[in-house]
Amino acid sequence: MVTLLANPGQFEGKPIAVIGFYHESFEHSAIYLSREDFSNFITSNGFWVASKVPEPLNDHYVLLEGIFTAKSHGHLGQWQGMICGVSKAVSWGRDER
User: Fold this and answer.
1) Residue range(s) defining the domain that contains residue 37
2) pLDDT at 20
3) Could you state, in chain order, the average pLDDT of each consecutive group of 10 residues for the chain (97 residues)?
4) pTM: predicted TM-score of the whole model, two decimal places
5) Per DSSP, what are the bridge partners of residue 61?
6) pLDDT at 96 (0 to 100)
7) Which one of 30, 41, 62, 77 has the fewest CB atoms closer than 10 angstroms to its CB?
8) Is the distance from CB of 60 to CB of 31 less than 8 angstroms?
9) Cα pseudo-dihedral 40, 44, 50, 54, rounded to 10
10) 58 with 22: CB under 8 angstroms?
């Protein structure tokens, strides 16, 4: 996730895998570097997710695999890029609250 945040242009149109904190709600579907980044709405540390992720993964740390684009920045253009075509979405870690 850190490498992708630091160099989004290098991954344009390529398959990627990231681990981060996922949140989905009305007009919001994004993966963040950490739960704290989500809580503080630090969109510069996240990516818009343009694919459906299973509801039980909402508000959990997840592993997402998909295709990355730095040309699109999600809802209102707030994120560093977008992950689409998610082919894998699974829970990651213990994710204690």
Assistant:
1) 2-91
2) 97
3) 92 97 93 96 94 94 96 80 96 73
4) 0.91
5) 21
6) 54
7) 77
8) no
9) -40
10) yes
Residue 51 lies in a domain: yes
63 forms bridges with which residues in the sheet? 19, 90
Q: Which of 1, 12, 93, 95 is nearest to 47 (CA)?
A: 1
User: Which tokens sit at 17?
Assistant: 């895998």
* Residue 97 counted as domain residue: no
Query: Number of structural domains, the chain?
Result: 1
18 belongs to a structural domain: yes
**Helix extents (H) in the chain:** 2-6, 35-39
Contact 23, 59 (CB under 8 A): yes
Q: List Cα–Cα distances, 78 to 51, 65, 82, 86, in angstroms.
A: 17, 21, 10, 20
Length of the chain: 97
* 64 touches 88 (CB < 8 A): yes
